[in-house]
# Entry
Amino acid sequence: MVKSASRNWAWGLAIIPFVAGGAFGQISTGIGQDILRPSSASYYYIAKPSELSMQVNIWGFVNNPGRYEVATSTDLLELLSYAGGPTQDALMDDVRITRSYERSEKGPPAEIYVDLENLTEVSTTDLILYPNDTIFIDHSSWINVRDLFVVITTAAIVTSAVAQVIIAVDRTE
# Structure
């Protein structure tokens, strides 16, 4: 299903610095010239040298997010496999494909939502990728609950340590 891009487009732009920024390291060439290069791979070339290729992005909860150059025949499931598959916390029933149109076409980018939990209900046309598509796989709400428990547990440990120090100081007085 195609929806207006206004729903999540601005939020998608907000994550660009986190995905594209990355940490950079210097590599010394030994001849007086250093090269800045991402410290972890974020660009993957999958297409065979003689194949017609396209570039697509996959962001979010996959094992190897980044920009992929793949054969034009690559579909969403193949790209997901190239990216190492979804992580444990990935939400696969609401995968978002943001499709940017050519400059000659007017209008905002289209967003296509695909339910990969029920592949029998997914149209094969929804799995087709086009050049410069961006696929975003969100996380399940369980990760929020889990992170909340980590914060609460940490706060409880710190509070307990502070209380023990206060009790120990009171006993020495």
Remarks:
- The chain has two domains: 2-140, 141-173.
- The longest helix spans residues 142-172.
